[in-house]
Amino acid sequence: MQSGEPVIGQMIGPRNDPDKIVKALQSIGYDFICIDNEHSLVGKETIFEYIRVARELEMPILMRPEEKTDNFRPYLDAGINGLMVSGVETVEEALFAVNQAYFPPIGHRGMGVNMSPYLLDGQNANDMTLFEITEYVNNNAMVFPIVESEASVKELHRILRLEGVTGISVGPNDFVLSMYQIPPKVKRTELYTSEAVETRFTQIIERCNAPRFRAAMGFFIKEKGGLLAMITGVREERSRRTVMVSSSFRKPVQDLSLASI
Question: Are residues 220 and 197 in contact, defined by beta-carbon separation less than 8 angstroms?
């Protein structure tokens, strides 16, 4: 992300073997993984195994928790690099995630660095100063609020200015539902390229193109056969424009060959 190059990640659900799936995804070029606990069920012990494998392979691991008001700290202290927080509509809701993800002076995260060997990537906390520990974690933490409603768009300029917000993601399905209330009777690929939806996505881009930010979004592209491109707007001082492509992966690994992933 810091070089401005596209980063491609995979959303992961239940019934997968952490050792097999993370190694397979890295071998075919994925840059990060994201555990989805908003729309699927992945147990805590399994998540810890994903953290272990991802950290050993130096592959960033994010998490999409069940609720924006969850206690994220055990996952972060275990070694999750960052959060994709759904349904964020206000700066206060974004601040809730920032306060759990970052130590002072950015947030109000509590100290639990000795609970996991993966948080500091093998460094011995006993040999480090408190400043070195908090600075290392803060420099490697990420928070991506997910824009999923028109209320989010109205607050986006404030959310993006919040220190600790790495960038944003867009949840196109929920965003469309927030616009129409009743699901339209059209195909998803047709809906995301409709004039009304594209207008809202353009507004997101414009708001993210404010000073210090560059942006894009998530949508279906007709010319690319319905490819869902999940793109984030990121703080310019931390990185240039970053393209984050993510997709769902919930089939058991034993049912898949590498060619089908």
Answer: no
